[in-house]
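Bug #77: duplicate submission created two jobs. Keeping one. Sequence:
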Amino acid sequence: MRTFKKLILSLIVALSLVTVLQAITPELPMTSVVQASSIKISKTKYIMNKGEKYTLKIKGTKKSVKWSSSNKKIATINSKGKVTAKKKGTVTITAKVGSKKYKCKIKVETPKINKTRKTLYINNTYTLKISGTSQQIKWSSSNKDVATVNKKGKVTAKKAGTATITAKIGSTKYKCKISVVNNANSITVGQANALKSANSYLDFLAFSKKGLKGQLEFEGYTDSEIDYAINNCDADWKKQALKSAKSYLDSLSFSKKGLIKQLEFEKFEDNEIEYAINNCNANWYEEAVECAKSYLNSSSFSRDSLYNQLEFEDFEADEIEYALTEVGY
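Kept job's structure:
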């Protein structure tokens, strides 16, 4: 009986010691240790095409993240981790969480398709090529009855009509419009050459329908040859207007009204011009700033004379005031 009482007493003492030790022993910051070791960036290497956007993420923490780019000319990143590829090159994106840094190496490529339009006779083949990329290319045809394409970019003309061949690289698509026509003996030499000329012009420049007709007339083609070329070149005149607008904006500064006048001069239709203006992504305030800077780089202007010059360029009053403020007036 005494032995049993001693045993019970020993157990009580032991339990009391455990309770005391738990009370005085500090808890280890297990949560912090686990969190610190599990923080990671979603990508450490990534390939993008110029113009693409991709969002990087930091996993394993709810702390604020400070993003930065080693070269903003190649790629920028905003406060939410969205990367925008600007031009060809390699850049390091850094996410800073507290004192720790997590990095992703971004390679920006500039793929280019060798043809954006091509005319083929039935049963003929042509191989499209993509340069400037190390990424996988996925080829597809919008109309396999007219033209098919294999995994190496080889196009086979099936029957008369049009089809768009698309090369998808990452999230970007590069397209070539294929026009399939009847065999050579079913059209005249003049028609074939007129179509070839039309497609050649459209490969390098933007044309309105009337503008292209005028160019082919200048080349000496007959009305029937020109009509055949215009009807079979498969041009999207709205997209041609947009291409023209972007081309102008890449080289010069334009007001909205000024660009409309330029596209009218190029003989685009009203609905084509409206499409171009609504989709060219121009910031007319910044266009006014660039225009003001251009004038100041070439000559000296008072505030009033610079205002008048921008007004002559058809900028709106609020755009002009913004530009003057930005250049220091």
